Amino acid sequence: MMSPHSLTVSLIQHRCVADVKGNQDTISEQIANAASQGAQLILLQELHNSLYFCQTESPAFFDLAESIPGPSTEQLAALAKQHQLVIVASLFERRAAGLYHNTAVVFESDGSIAGQYRKMHIPDDPGFYEKFYFTPGDLGFQPVQTSLGKLGVLVCWDQWYPEAARLMTLAGADLLLYPTAIGWDRREPEDDQVRQREAWMTIQRSHAIANALPTLVCNRTGFEASPEEPEIGIDFWGSSFVCGPQGEILTQAPADEPCLLTVKLDMAQTEAVRRMWPFMRDRRIDAYTDLTKRFRD
Amino acid sequence: MMSPHSLTVSLIQHRCVADVKGNQDTISEQIANAASQGAQLILLQELHNSLYFCQTESPAFFDLAESIPGPSTEQLAALAKQHQLVIVASLFERRAAGLYHNTAVVFESDGSIAGQYRKMHIPDDPGFYEKFYFTPGDLGFQPVQTSLGKLGVLVCWDQWYPEAARLMTLAGADLLLYPTAIGWDRREPEDDQVRQREAWMTIQRSHAIANALPTLVCNRTGFEASPEEPEIGIDFWGSSFVCGPQGEILTQAPADEPCLLTVKLDMAQTEAVRRMWPFMRDRRIDAYTDLTKRFRD
Question: In whole angstroms, what is the distance from residue B285 CA to residue B281 CA?
Fold first, then answer.
């Protein structure tokens, strides 16, 4: 029951370019590198195939969307099969005309699609106009069963919601995984920037702690200019990381460089930690009903 | 609406002794010191009037419990009135014969009782046998209205539950406050100890972040021997802290020393942060129903 078993995971943090093929080539090369390092599971960053187009609201960008399955899933499925590893990817899904999602797709090591997750919490603030592009997910918070365990895949803005991580945990997730695309507005003072990144790390480490689950976070890096005002844009802060079930940082990428981040996880730790800190035993489910309210007024 | 207003808070971290009067004298003296520093709100540590008696299960320790109101609330009410400040205290409540709670009591600056909170999540693990002593709270997660705002008072083990902080927030809390009593087993390796304290800080900072609320945490310090095995016991790790609404540490006490920790909060920050990171806007309340389940199996 507590037999040790390890899981080697790789996160691919990279700079995106306008050319989709260029991004796919980077990913393909880094997956091969990860495989040579013994990776069994790959986590890619959010919307890894393109620049982060949500800096502006432009109907033309819907051309970047694809059906699932589609050309991108075929390419990723082939990589999963070739290297015999599980891949968690993040795509701009065209489900129907006028119906688009921000969708994570999980590929089994035989090249099949194990499952998908449609981003549930959609942000919208200056520079991150996602509500224009993405219909909120309708698949709920369901982990994806794979040969490596149940993957609690969530996407970016979901990272601020303890509810999402908890629901994945209650459904038996063995890991939490966050493809993400977050960065700084260069015009903000440095102390604001430091506080933002620290908050982003802290909240995701807290999901690991609250649920005693290893947590993987893969962010993009590099500056991407705004299509409307090229002198401004987003400095994606990289800093992809993996933490253990007490939130302890196991490995972390730099802020401003591409990075292939590989680490071996001890998957028996979750049970060991939960025996010491049995949070699930004591949840007051009789008193949580109002969590489904917008506000208790 | 966003007019700046400040709130000066003081946390009293101290070593407890067996003599209740000794602890009350320490608290009385430190509240006077805090008042002279301009404190408007005092947060005391969990069960500050006694040693942490839950290291063993002994029916005799129920003698420490008191009715509310009772002698301890009278003493604390007098201090609140004398110094004209709000006090958040933590008492062992005797509600009826055989019915005891771990109860936080909030005193208004005129000496009246503003409200109380009965600890909802009750731990039980070696050295912390709280399920023997405390009936789980039945007042739910309701902040206490005071002249200084709505206080989201929770107690110790509650700190591991994002649900508790969220419910306080949804009910309009302006601050989160945690009286706590947590420490190390000296027999554990140092790296385990470091990880535990870091997890404890991280999860509480995460409640500040998820809810954009300043968060106050007051822990006891010092070694308390086990009544059964005096060579073992709990090294309470102090480290009381106050963080702002992005989880940024504003001030922190040492691990192994008593400390009066005073800091001025900018209460306009919550609104400013929520305008930038409007997490409450995007909660998927349509998909949170299963949070009231024990497990989704």
Answer: 10
d(CA B269, CA A188): 16
B contact test, residue of A118, A241, A291, A295 with most B CBs within 10 A: A291
Q: What is the DSSP string of A47-80?
A: TTTS--GGGS--GGGGGG-B-SSSHHHHHHHHHH
Chain A interface, best mutation among B157, B249, B292, B297, by max A CB count within 10 A? B292
Distance CA A16, CA A271 (A): 38
Instruction: Look up residue A136 and give its DSSP letter.
Output: P
* Residue contact B209–A277, C-beta within 8 A: no
β-pair type (B259-266, B233-237): unpaired
And the tokens for B229?
């095995």
Determine the Cα–Cα distance for residues A39 and B188; give it in Å rounded to an integer. Answer: 33
The model's pLDDT over A163-214, given as tens digits with 9 standing for 90+, comes to 999 999 999 999 999 999 999 998 999 999 999 999 999 999 999 999 999 9
Q: Which of B155, B138, B152 has its CA nearest to residue B47?
A: B155
Task: Test A161 with B279 for CB contact under 8 angstroms.
Answer: yes
Examine the residue annotation and report whether B243 is marked as an active-site residue of this protein.
Answer: no
**CA–CA gap between residue A72 and residue A58 (Å, rounded):** 22
CB A153 within 8 A of CB A144: yes
Q: Is A210–B162 a contact, with Cβ atoms under 8 angstroms apart?
A: yes
Calculate the CA B218 to chain-centre distance: 6
Backbone angles phi, psi at A241, to 5 degrees: -155, 165
**B168: nearest CA partner in chain A:** A296
* Residue of chain B whose alpha carbon sits nearest to that of A119: B284
Enumerate domains of chain A plus CATH numbers. Answer: 6-283 (3.60.110.10)
User: Which residues of A are designated catalytic?
Assistant: 46, 119, 156
A109 residue type, one letter: S
In chain B, which residue's Cα lies nearest the Cα of A296? B171
**Is residue B293 among the annotated active site residues?**
no
Q: Do B291 and A205 touch (CB under 8 A)?
A: no
The C-alpha angle with vertex B24 and arms to B20 and B26, in degrees rounded to 5, equals: 120
Model-level ipTM above the cut of 0.95? yes
Distance from CA of B63 to the nearest CA of A (A): 26
Question: Does residue B284 come out as left (phi exceeding 0), alpha (psi in the -120 to 50 range) or beta?
Answer: beta
Q: Can you spell out the DSSP letters for B223-239?
A: EEE-SS-TT-EEEEE--
pLDDT 10s digits, B155-211 = 999 999 999 999 999 999 999 999 999 999 989 999 999 999 999 999 999 999 999
Using one digit for the tens of pLDDT, what is the confidence trace for A37-96? 999 999 999 999 999 999 999 999 999 999 999 999 999 999 999 999 999 999 999 999
In total, the C-beta contacts within 8 angstroms joining chain A to chain B are: 169
In a mutational test of the A interface, the residue from B202, B250, B286 whose CB has the highest number of chain A CBs within 10 Å is: B202
Q: What is the DSSP letter of B63?
A: G
Mark yes or no for CB contact A170/B122 under 8 Å: no
